[in-house]
Design goal:
Length: about 350
């Protein structure tokens, strides 16, 4: 993980001068800066983690590089938009697959045309939906990868929509042929299509997602609307200026507030830069992949956000997420914040 500031500490520990070094680096850093602590003593790891928790500077990574330990922490709390309180378990995310027709350079789960499918599967989705109905799930989000690569995506979405209003995240480029037939069979009043469009013009979108993708996505948006679907537009941006430019575009397009999602690139997966987020920053949104149950969809490949390998019974996996949230609250000096994916 690339850092903004490197702090070489040699053999210093908390009993031999490390604390003043950390205080000094905080004073010259800005909120959100990433600080790499590079030393010779692996033993300070637990104390450094405790200091990070106590001071509200989350530890993001601990590695060994060039034979020595390296820790990276973020300065300060994460500035993300707040929302109304959302009960843990009211939102359920399903990663139906991890392969994709695109290779976006910031994908938080490293999806691409060559990524293994790692399919959740229709039978498993149907069981999840049945059990979710008994757990008070209010919204289901289906994502990937690109869900419309799956032959049975229509049946998957019908199973979910029978339980709760369902949003499917897609790049909108595959609404032709048999996939168009699957789309037309879906209930318009229960399914929303959240289509990724990163900018008002092709340049930025195509830079991240590939040449020609902006135009094809715009065609997909038009097809979805022609079929009578509610479409939500979602942009992933690098800067405040990009976010503001996209808001102006949405205003010109007369897109309703509830059909807009603008989020920053998260420093996860394939991203080489972005907002570094940890478990302490995120209100959990139960996320299920074929590998297990995760804290949040932004890190559905990352071991630090894995809660349990056991999906079923669903009531127990939901309870495991809530227990983990309670434990996190015991350590935190601040409230977790919501990082919007939808």
């Amino acid at each position: 993980m690339k850092a903004d500031i490197d702090l070489e500490i040699g053999r210093k520990t908390f009993t031999s001068g490390l604390l003043p070094e950390l205080v000094a680096v905080l004073r010259r850093s800005r909120p959100g800066d990433l600080v790499a602590v590079i030393g010779d003593e692996q033993d300070i790891g637990p104390e450094l983690e405790t200091w990070c928790r106590f001071t509200g500077n989350p530890l993001l990574e601990a590695t060994v590089e060039k034979g020595g330990p390296r820790w990276v922490f973020r300065c300060g709390t994460l500035a993300v938009p707040a929302e109304d309180n959302r009960p843990v378990g009211s939102r359920l995310w399903l990663y139906t697959n991890f392969d994709c027709n695109l290779h976006c350079d910031y994908c938080c789960v490293r999806s691409s045309p060559t990524a293994p499918r790692r399919e959740l599967g229709l039978a498993r989705v149907r069981r999840i939906a049945r059990e979710a109905a008994e757990l008070g799930v209010k919204e289901i989000f289906v994502t990937g990868g690109e869900p419309f690569l799956l032959e049975d995506i229509g049946e998957i979405l019908l199973s979910c929509a029978a339980v709760a209003p369902t949003t499917v995240l897609t790049n909108g480029m595959l609404f032709t042929g048999r996939r168009a037939e699957s789309l037309r069979a879906l209930p318009r009043d229960r399914i929303v299509l959240q289509i990724s469009l990163d900018s008002a013009t092709p340049e930025l979108h195509d830079l991240h997602r590939g040449p020609g993708t902006w135009a094809r996505t715009r065609e997909g948006i038009q097809r979805a609307r022609a079929h009578g679907f509610r479409v939500r537009l979602a942009a992933t941006v690098s800067t405040d200026a990009e976010a503001e430019a996209f808001r102006q575009f949405l205003d010109e397009e007369k897109i309703a507030a509830e059909d807009r999602v603008i989020r920053r690139i998260a420093l996860r997966g394939a991203a080489s830069e972005g907002v570094a987020v940890t478990r302490a920053d995120l209100v959990p949104e139960v996320t299920i992949t074929v590998e297990g149950v995760y804290w949040h969809p932004v890190g559905a490949e990352d071991s630090d956000l894995l809660i349990t390998r056991d999906i079923f019974p669903l009531a127990e996996s939901f309870a495991a997420v809530r227990r983990a949230f309670d434990r996190e609250g015991e350590h935190a000096n601040k409230l977790a914040r919501i990082f919007n994916c939808a």
